[in-house]
Amino acid sequence: MEPRIVECTRVITPDTPVDVIAYGCTSASMAIGEEGVFANIHKAKPDVRCTTPITAAFAAFEAFGAKRIGVLTPYPADVNRIVSDYISARGYEVPVFGSFNADRDTVVARIDPQSIENGVRELVRHAEFDAIFVSCTSVRLMEACAELEQHLGIPLTSSNHAMAWHALRLAGIDDRLGHYGSLFDLPLAPED
C-alpha cells in the first residue's frame, strides 16, 4: 500500500486545495507508521493536515481522557500483535483484547453490526477500561455507536468513527453531532 500513497493523494482534487486527507487503513497505518503515511501524503500535498484511523483513535482517547483501552479487531493473530503493541507503545494500557480472527478483508466486511455489538459487550464482561476501540475500516459500527455507548456506559469509537470525527475537527468543523456517539460532542484535545 505504501508505494501508492503519493500517487493516490495526487488524484484527490488535483487543482483544488483540501484541508485534510484521511488515509483509510488502520493496520497499514500501524505497519507503515503514521509518520510514514503523512510523509507520503505531504509529497503530493505538502500543506494538508493528515489523519489515519489509528491517529484518530489516539486523538479520541485523549478527548475521552482514556488511558485503559479495550480493543476489538477482526484481524488474525499476527496483525493483532501489531495493533496491541502499537497502542501500548503510545502509553495506553490494553487490559482486554478481542478478535474475530478473520484472515481476509472480504470476511471482515461481512461481519454484521450485531456481531460487532456482541463482541463489544463481551469485552466489557472481561475487564475494566476507560474506552473501547473497534479497529478496522471494514468494520461497521457508526450507526450503533451512540446507543451502544448508552447501554454500556463507556465511550466507544471505531476506525471510521474516530477518523470521521478527527478529519472534521482538523478541518475546523466543531459541530456537535452526539447522535453518532459522545465523541462527536467533543473538541480535539489541546495538543492536536
Topology, please?
Elements lengths: L4 H6 L9 E3 L3 H7 L1 H11 L4 E3 L1 H12 L3 E6 L3 H13 L3 E7 L5 H4 L4 H14 L4 E4 L10 H8 L3 E3 H12 L22
Parallel strand pairs: 1-2, 3-4, 3-5, 5-6
Helix pairs in contact: 4-9
* Overall geometric form: globular
CATH architecture of the domain at 60-158: 3-Layer(aba) Sandwich
Count of helix runs: 9
Low-confidence stretches: none
Element pattern in H and E? HEHHEHEHEHHEHEH
- Percent of residues in beta strands? 5-15%
**Largest β-sheet summary:** 4 strands, parallel
- What is the oligomeric state here? single chain
Give the end-to-end Cα distance, rounded to a whole number of Å. Answer: 26 Å
Strand sequence of the main sheet, in spatial order?
4-3-5-6
What is the average of the pLDDT values? 93
Give the CATH topology of the domain at 60-158. Rossmann fold
Structural class: alpha/beta
**Computed Rg:** 16 Å
Say how many strands there are. Answer: 6
